[in-house]
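Q: Joint fold for the lines below.
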Amino acid sequence: MRDKQILFLALPAILYLFSFTTYPIISNIVLSFYERTYEGSLKWVGLGNYLWFFFRDPYGGLILWNTLFYSLATPVIAVTLALPIAVALRRLGGRWLVLLMLPAFVPPVTAAMAWYLMLNPLYGLGYYLMQSGVVKSNPLSTIWTVVLIDVWRALPTAVLIIYSGLRALPRSVEEAAMADGLVGVRKFFAIDLPLVSPHILTAFVLTALTGFFTFDPIYIGTAQVGPRLLDNLAYYSFEKFASGEFGYAATLIVVMTAVGTLLSLAYMKALSAKTMLRLPGVYRLPNREAPRALHAAVLAAALAFVFTPLIWLAIVSVKPPREVINVPPSLLPSRLSFENYEAAFTSGLPFFLMSLYVSLINTAVTVFLAAAAAYQMRVHNLGGWPLVTYILYLMTTPTLLYIVPLYLVVRSLGVYNTLWALVLTYPVMTLPYAIWILYNYYSGFNKQIEEAALADGMTRVKAFFKVVLPLSRSGMGVAGLYAFLFSWGALVFPLAFTSTPYNLADPLSFSGAQTFSIYISMLMSPVTMSYGEVSAAGVVSIIPPLIYLIAVRNHLEKVWGAR
Amino acid sequence: MSRNLAMGIGVVIILLIALGAYVFMSKPPAQISTTSSAITTKPPSTTATSTSPQPTATTSQLSGSLTVLVPTGDPTLMPYVRMVADEFTKRYPGVKITIQPVPFGQMVQTALTALQNKNPDPAVIIFYPSQASTLGPYLMDLTPYFNSGVLNYSDLPMSAMTAVIMLSSDGKITKIFGAPFQMVFGYVLVYRKSIIENPSLRAEFKQKYGYELDPATWSSWDQLIQAAEFLQSKQVAKYALLFPDGLQQSIFNGFIGIFYTYALNDPCVDIPKFGGAAPAQGYWAYFKMTEQGVNITVGCPSFLQALRTYKRLIQFQPPIDVQAMEYDQLRDLFLTGDYAMVAAWTSFIPIYNNATVSKVAGDIGIAPLPGGKYPYATGLAPTFVGINPYTQNPDLAARFVAFMMSPEMYRRGAEKVGFVPGTISGLRAASEVPSMSWVRPFIPLLEAKISQTDLARLTLVNRVTNFFTDLRPYFINEVAKYLRGQQDAETTQRNIYQTWQNIAKIS
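A: Joint structure:
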C-alpha cells in the first residue's frame, strides 16, 4: 500500500516525462525517413535525408563544424575566464557572486540582443571599435560574436561551480599546505587546482552544453553574417522545421541527438569523476600570495564584462527615437526619453502578459511535480540509478529535439497557438532540471520527519503534502527560480507552437500565445527592426527574473555557498 | 518496487511507440487534388475540384464571419486591410471580419498549420512570393471565381502571377491559388530632389557627361554609376548611393535586377518576349527548359557582367565588411540624409516621407532602375491573397477579396494610407492620386503579357522545391565572397552554377 502511494506521488512527473520525451525521440527517427513533396505530401526517402546532409548539403559539413566549435570554444573560454574569477571571489568574498551571476538571469534572447546592439557597427559601440582600429571589420559578422555571447551566458555557471569547489576544500588540506609552506600561486596549482579538477570538468561539460544548445544568438545574428554561416544543428533544424521540411528537420535532430547523447555521457562521467588533475613543474612557480589588487582587477574586469552590454542596453532604451540611429552614436542620450518604453509597453503588453502567465503556471506545475517525484526518488530510491540517469540525460538534451513531434501533437489536440500549448509542453524543459535540483536538495532531508507523520496515522500522500512539502520551501524556491527562468526566456517552443500575440479582446480564451521573447526577436528582425523599442523591451524582460531572484536570494546564496 | 516501475515504464513506452506510429502513419499532410483542365491566360475556362466550390452567393445575401491572416511589417498593408474590412462590414452589416496579424517569420508555419489541419480559419490568407510554393498545394483553386467574374483575371499582371500558378507536366494551368492584390516595386531609385534637381549640378553634369542628371532619362547601369561618381566627387552628401548588399536577402533580390538587364540581350538566357515586351524580372530567369532538361542560366555570360556591375554599384557606401545593407539599413540610413540616392522598395516611401523620423521627408523623387528608359531592373514583388479551402464560407471570402481588389478601394487606399494596388486598373486609379503619381512609370511593368507557351518557363522556378531554402543561401554567401574580394567573378559564377546543379531538387 505504502509503495503504491510512493508511486502515486511520483507517477505524474515520470509519466509526463516518458510520454513527452520518448515519443518525440522515436517519432523523429521515423520522420527522418520522409520528405515533403511539391504537392505537400510526405514521401518515403529511406536514408535520403541523411545522405543529403552528409554528402550533398553544401553547408552540412560547416553546420557540424559550427556545432562542435560552439560546444568546445564556449567551455574552453568560459572555464579559462572562470578560474581566476573564482579565485578572486574566494579571496575578496562571495558577496560579489550575485552580481556575477546576473547573466544567468537575463533571458537568452535579451542577452543576444544586448550584445548585437552594443557591437552594432553604425549605432553601437562597434562603431568606435572600428574607428579606433581595434577591429577591422563589422564585429557582428563573425562567428566569434556568437561564442562571445555564449561565454557571457555560460560564465556564471562556470564561476559558480569552480567557486563552490574551492570553498568546499577541506580545512585539513589547507592546514597541511600551510604546514608544508605552500602559499599563493604555487599552492593553487599544486593543491587547489588538482582538488577542484572534478568541478572544472563539470563546469566544462555544462558550459559545453550551453555552446551545444546555442540558438538565440544565431537567431538574432544570422542577418549580419549570411545564411547558414553561423548555423549549428539546433538552429538549422529549426529553420528547416519553420519552412515545413519536417523530414529533414527530424534528420538533423536525430544527428543532434546522437551528438547530445555523447555530451550527456561526458556530463555523467564528469559527475562521477574521481581523478584529480596533476600539473608538472608547479614547484617552480612563485610561492607567494598574488596581490589583493590583482584579484580586485580580475573581479572588476569580470564585472565590466558582465555589465557593459546591459548598461548600453539601458542607455539606448532612454534615447529619443531619432537619436537611436545617429551615426556616430552618442554615448549618452541628449535627454531622457521614455518613448521607447511607451512603445514597448503598448505593443509588447500581450506578449508580456502571456509570458507571465505561462511562466507562473509552469513554475507552479513544475515545482509541484518535481518535488513529488524527487522526494520519492531520493528518499525512497524510486527508480534507482536508471531513473536518475534518465533525468540527467534529459537535462543535457536540447529542447529543440522535441519540436517536430510535439508540434504535431499540439496541432492534433487543437491547442496550437494557445496558452495550453505552452503549459502542456514547457515542463519538458523545466521538469528534469527541477527534479535534479530537488533530488540533490532531499539528500540532506531527514527521513524521520515523514516516518513520524506516518506514525501519527497520516497516509504517505498526506504526510508528503502536510509535512514534507512545507519543509521543502527552500529547495522548491531554487527549483522554481530555474523553472521560471527557463519559462520566461524560452524562445524555441513559443516559436514552434504559437503564431499570434495574446488576444486581449478575448482574454479568457487564452488564444494567441506569443511570448515576450518572440516580441524581442521580432523587433530585431530586419523587416521590423526598431533599436529603441527592442532595447526598452530588453530592459523590461530582465525585471521579472530579477524580482524572483531577489525574492529567493537568501535560499540561493545558501545553495551557491556565497554565505 | 523498481522492478514494477520498470515494467510499468516498459509498457508505457511500448504503448507510446504504438500510439506515435499510429498518429504519424494516419496523419499525412492534407493533399489538395488539382484540376486537369486547361486554362488559357485569358479568363480561365471552367474547372471543378473537390476544393473548388462554385460561387453561389449574391451580394445581397452576404453574411457570416471571416478571419484574415495578415503579415505584419509592411507599413501600408495592415492599415489597408483594416480600411477595406471596415468598409465591407459597413456595406454588409451581416458580415464580421477579424484581422489576425502574424509576424513575417511565422507566416508560413501559421498558415500551414491551419491548412494542414483543415481549420476553417483563417479564411483569407495573405502571403508573399517566397511563401507561395509552400502554401500553394494547400490553398483553394481560385479558377471558379475567375471564371464567374467574381475576380477579374484580365486585370491581373501576368508577370506577377507566375508564383501562384501550378502547371501540369504538359504545360497546362492546373491551379491558380492566389491573386496579387498589393504591388511593391523593387528596387526603384529613390533620390533627393534637392541634390539631383539642383540646376548648377545638372548643368555641370550635362557638360561633363553629355546627358542629363535625371534618373528618368537614364538607360543603363553605367549612367547610374557615373552619376554616383559625380555626386561623390561633389561631396553633396556623405555617400552618393546606397545599394542593397545585405546578407540575409537583399543580395539575392538586388542582384536579380542587374542580371536581368544584361540577360535581356543574352541568347544564352533566352528571355521570352511577347508583343515586343519582356515579362517583369524575376528568379524565373535563372532556369530554362532545354531538350536536355532544366538548364541553369547562372553559367551564362550576362551573369558575369552582372556580377562586375554589382560590385561597382556598392562602392559608394560603407564596405560590405563594415555594414552590409539589408532591408532595415536601406530603410533607416536614407532617413539620416547622409545618402543622395538609394535603391529601395516602394514600401519605404511613406517612411522616407515621414517628417517625424526622416530628414529627407518631402525631398524625394522616384525612378525605375537602372533608369526610366529601360526600367527592367525594377521587379514586381506582389503580395498575394489566397483562400482557405476549408473555410465555411468560401464565396464570402472571394467577395471580400474582390472588394479588396476593386478600383474604388484601391483609390481610397492610395489616398488614405499610400497603398500600392496589385492590379492594372487599381494602379491606374492610384496614379491619379497626386501623392501617388510616382507609380505611373511602373504601370507598363504590369501590362507586359505572357504567352501560354512561356508560362512553363516562368513557373519553372516554382518546381525547384529547395530554391529558397538551399539555393538562395548558397548564392548569397558566394556573391558576398566576391563583393568582399575573397574570390573573383569567374570562381563565383562557377561555384554557384556547379552547386545549384548538384543540389536543385526539381519536382
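Q: Anything notable?
A: Chain A is about 70% helix and 0% strand. Chain A has a mean pLDDT of 88.
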